[in-house]
DNA sequence: TACTTTTGTAAAGCAAACTTTACATAAAAA
DNA sequence: TTTTTATGTAAAGTTTGCTTTACAAAAGTA
């Protein structure tokens, strides 16, 4: 699953640390998600959706 | 997090077992999600979204 | 009623999401 | 160049999504 988190974050001049604090996860978790190491949980995806004002489907690209 | 999985499933005359097989999880997992025992992973949510032809946000109601 | 299907749930175990600590590298700023 | 900030990554541990097995109860059907 690809995602646009890094682009959305940097476009807002936020650091991984900033985003992590707002979302309520660790900086390493943001880094891992941006790097595609693993997918976020549904609650984490929802929090990002709310912050970036974009539907989950537009931030995360699901591919079978 | 509330969800409409049970309604969507029964509206299509599917059993938990049917849905589980299509989505690729166990029947107990479907039951737990319907009962709100836990949230599905993002990939599982995407599969349901595809099957029911509804955006994730319309199937799962996130509440802080 | 008797039988079959569907649902609910519990226990034990595995895997993935996430944590904390820690350190190394890269990039930006002084 | 020196110092600070931001990013990358690793290791060990916790939590949660999910599995299998198993059984009980509810609901539908003969």
From TrEMBL, chains A, B:
Alphabetic keyword roster: DNA-binding
CDD domains tied to this protein: HTH_XRE
Domain HTH cro/C1-type: residue ranges: 5-59
One Pfam family linked to the record: HTH_3
Family annotation (Gene3D superfamilies): lambda repressor-like DNA-binding domains
InterPro entries: Cro/C1-type_HTH (IPR001387), Lambda_DNA-bd_dom_sf (IPR010982)
Top-rank lineage group of the source organism: Bacteria
Signal peptide: none
Protein's recorded name: Helix-turn-helix transcriptional regulator
């Amino acid at each position: 699953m690809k995602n646009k988190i890094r682009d959305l974050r940097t476009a807002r001049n936020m650091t991984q640390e900033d985003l992590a604090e707002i979302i309520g996860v660790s900086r390493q978790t943001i880094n891992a998600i941006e790097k595609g190491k693993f997918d976020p949980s549904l609650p984490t995806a929802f929090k990002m959706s709310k912050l970036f004002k974009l539907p989950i489907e537009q931030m995360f690209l699901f591919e079978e």
